[in-house]
Structure formats: structure tokens, C-alpha cells
Design goal:
This is Sugar ABC transporter substrate-binding protein. With about 400 residues, the chain is an alpha/beta fold. The chain has 16 helices and 13 strands.
Length: about 400
């Protein structure tokens, strides 16, 4: 995409007594996941005493870029966002750099692009995502365990080429590699929503009447599966599981024998901690270059008790009562806390482990010098050890204890 040079304001340096204001730019509020995304960002800003501006861009790349262009006019210092597609993060970050605001992005980023890329200056402070490979593998493994680690299964996946879809598919393949008695007889994109997924599920059930389990890309897909199973009289006979921990799916886990569980990727923490990172950086905290890319934890809710407790932890607006102020390194010095797990991402391995991404690696690709130096110094392991050293009980700790694993996907 070629962008004309916009007639926009450039933000000047913030005075020490000037209030920090955060823009949250995301697709829509007409979706439970994004409601939680908004709630977490809003709560962190309230706890830290920051200004907060919430804007949706309705799946429009042009509108998303425009929101960042106009940020200085609203007194905004930093932006939390979800890049509408992987490649647009380049334009978003370039625009943020041009107008003088910082940016934290989640879930979607261009392959082989590190936030510390010199072309962005000191603008792109955080890219975060759940470890989709490990999270999906944990979910698939639970399904395989439920059917005795043998039998035929199908996977109703996401849209190929989407980073989340590709990494979740890799998680399914990882679980399959550990279970030689499981045969994947079909996999097909389900459109990532129940309306698109339903005919796909119906066709697959007709073509493969002897399957033992269905791995679902997300909760909406899983609900399409559960509805199809019920209408065919197969409830309780073929299990499935999803990802997102929506209220509807959590209630299905409590009530439907075919609903084995759902993976929480915890949008309220993701955006709230993004605010903490931006706030600390604006107040002078220096992060290791490797900390600009992080896995945030997830939790497979695979029991009616865990699903019920998670529902109880959710506010009406989708938020979860994390104490974001306690996570700030600026406010707490060495006594900052982490009530939800995280790990740094090794950027030398992230894309190379996904077949569709590995094929796009530029011949002359190399990490930014500071990032490579940190890797060479062994800082990835040191930082992960530091995170575990700051782990503290949080609003979902008891919920994790109710799952069959008794812990989160990252082991916190």
C-alpha cells in the first residue's frame, strides 16, 4: 500500500508534569473478545492515572492509520493496537514514528520484522501474542487424551496465511506428532466464525462419520461443531474444544458433554500490560531489546469447575480485575509483580518454526544488532527466569488450579 504524505501534527516532547494519554485502536466492540480487549486497556489506564481514548476502526486499514495520524491532536502519547493485517504494521509503526507516539501491537505482525528494526527508531515498543503453538497443542492433546490417544480426528481451522491460523495449525501438528495413534483424516478452513464454519462441519461429518474428535480453531467454530453434533444426536460422543474463552463457550463447557474446554488467551491482560509497558517506557524505564517481543500466557479451561470460576472472574464488560499498577517497574522498582505468565520470544526461531513463514525469509535477513547481542549473551533465558521470579498470585490463579493440568500453558 502506498500512502500519500499526510498533513498531520507531530507530537512534541512530553513535559514531566503532562498527563500521559493512551489510544486503544482496535477492530470493533461488537464482539466479546474485543470488549475484553477494551476493558483491560481501560482498567490499566484508570489504575495508572492515564488518559484513555478508545477508537474502533471497523476492519478498515485506512481508518486505523488515520487514527494514529490524528493522535497528537488528541494529546495522545502512545497507542495500543491490533494490526488489521500483518503487513500493515509497517505503515502503522512508520506513521507512529512520524507523529511522535509509541506503539504496542498484539497478535499480528509482519514475518521477519523485529520491533527494534532501526527504521522504526524507538517507536515499536512491544509485540505480544499468546504462544499459539503450545496453547493449541495443549488443547489438541486434551482431546486426544479424552479419546484414548487413538482414532480419527478432523481439524476445522482458520484462514490460511493468517499468522494465528498458521501457528494454531502448527500446534495441532505438534500434538499429532506426539500421538501416533491419532489419524488426521481431514482439515479445512472454517472461516473463523460459526456461520461460515457450520456447512464445513456438516460436510466433514458426512464425509467422515467414524471420527472420534474435532479440533476447532476458535470458540465460534467449536459452537458450530457442538450445534451440528446436537442435531445429529452425537452430543457426548464426539468431543471438541475451542480457543477464546467466550462466555457462551464457557457455559457450553459447563453444560455440554461434547465441549471439553476452551483456551483463554486473556485479552484484558494483553492490553492492560501493553499499557504498563508503554507507561514505564515513557517514564524512562529501559527494557532489554528482547523484551520487545513477548509471549503472554494462556490457560486451557478443561473442567466445568474451571469454566465456572473463569466466568465468575469476568466483569460485565469482559474485564478481569488485574492489579496493573503492581506490574509497573517505574512505580515499584524491583518489587514489580507478574500475576500472569510471560516469556520473551526468540525472534530467530519464531517464524522459522512455521512452514508458511519460513519460506518467506529474506536471503539477507538478520536481527537488529542489539537484539542479536542480547541473544548471544543468553538473555532470553535470564529474562524468562526474571519473569518467573516476579510471579505473584492474581485473579486467575485459583482458576488455573481447577484445570486438569493445574497450571497455565507456560507453566505459571
Amino acid at each position: 500500500m502506498t500512502l500519500a504524505a499526510p498533513a498531520i501534527l507531530t507530537r512534541t516532547a512530553r513535559g514531566s508534569d503532562q498527563k500521559i494519554t493512551i489510544l486503544n485502536s482496535f477492530p470493533t466492540l461488537a464482539n466479546e473478545y474485543w470488549q475484553g480487549w477494551d476493558a483491560g486497556c481501560r482498567l490499566a489506564c484508570e489504575q495508572l492515572g492515564l488518559g484513555y481514548v478508545s477508537q474502533t476502526y471497523d476492519d478498515s486499514v485506512e481508518k486505523q492509520i488515520s487514527q494514529i495520524e490524528q493522535a497528537p491532536a488528541l494529546g495522545i502519547n502512545a497507542v495500543v493496537t491490533f494490526a488489521q493485517n500483518a503487513e500493515i504494521i509497517k505503515a502503522l509503526t512508520a506513521t507512529a514514528a512520524q507523529v511522535g507516539v509509541k506503539i504496542a501491537n498484539a497478535h499480528s505482525t509482519a514475518a521477519w520484522l523485529h520491533p527494534d528494526d532501526p527504521s522504526f527508531g524507538d517507536t515499536y515498543l512491544l509485540y505480544s501474542q499468546p504462544d499459539n503453538v503450545r496453547g493449541t497443542a495443549a488443547m489438541a492433546q486434551a482431546l486426544f487424551d479424552r479419546i484414548g490417544n487413538k482414532g480419527k480426528v478432523i481439524y476445522v481451522g482458520g484462514l490460511p496465511g493468517n499468522f494465528s491460523a498458521d501457528t494454531r495449525a502448527a500446534g495441532v501438528q505438534l500434538a499429532l506428532s506426539r500421538n501416533p495413534g491419532i489419524e488426521l483424516v481431514a482439515q479445512q478452513p472454517g472461516g473463523e466464525n460459526r456461520v461460515a464454519a457450520r456447512p464445513v462441519v456438516e460436510n466433514l461429518l458426512t464425509a467422515h462419520p467414524d471420527i472420534s474428535a474435532i479440533v476447532s480453531y476458535n470458540d465460534d467454530t467449536a459452537i458450530a461443531v457442538l450445534d451440528a453434533l446436537r442435531e445429529r444426536g452425537l452430543s457426548g460422543k464426539i468431543p471438541t474444544a475451542g480457543i477464546d474463552a467466550t462466555r457462551e463457550m464457557l457455559n457450553r463447557v459447563r453444560e455440554d458433554e461434547s465441549a471439553l474446554g476452551t483456551v483463554s488467551i486473556n485479552a484484558p491482560f494483553m492490553t492492560g500490560y501493553s499499557v504498563v509497558t508503554l507507561y514505564d517506557a515513557l517514564e524512562g524505564v529501559t527494557y532489554d531489546p528482547l523484551e520487545r517481543m513477548r509471549f503472554f500466557d494462556s490457560l486451557f479451561l478443561d473442567s466445568p469447575e474451571a469454566a465456572g470460576a473463569y466466568l465468575g472472574a469476568m466483569a460485565d464488560n469482559g474485564g478481569i480485575a488485574f492489579d496493573f499498577k503492581s506490574m509497573s517497574r517505574h512505580l515499584n522498582g524491583e518489587n514489580w509483580k507478574l500475576p500472569w505468565g510471560m516469556e520473551v520470544i526468540d525472534p530467530s526461531q519464531l517464524w522459522s518454526s512455521i512452514e508458511s513463514m519460513a519460506a518467506t525469509k529474506p536471503a539477507d535477513w538478520r536481527l537488529p544488532e542489539a537484539v542479536q547481542a542480547s541473544l548471544d549473551a543468553g538473555n532470553a533465558a535470564k529474562l524468562n527466569e526474571m519473569y518467573r521470579g516476579h510471579a505473584a498470585p492474581g485473579p486467575l490463579s485459583a482458576v488455573a488450579g481447577m484445570t486438569r493440568a493445574g497450571k497455565t500453558v507456560l507453566g505459571f
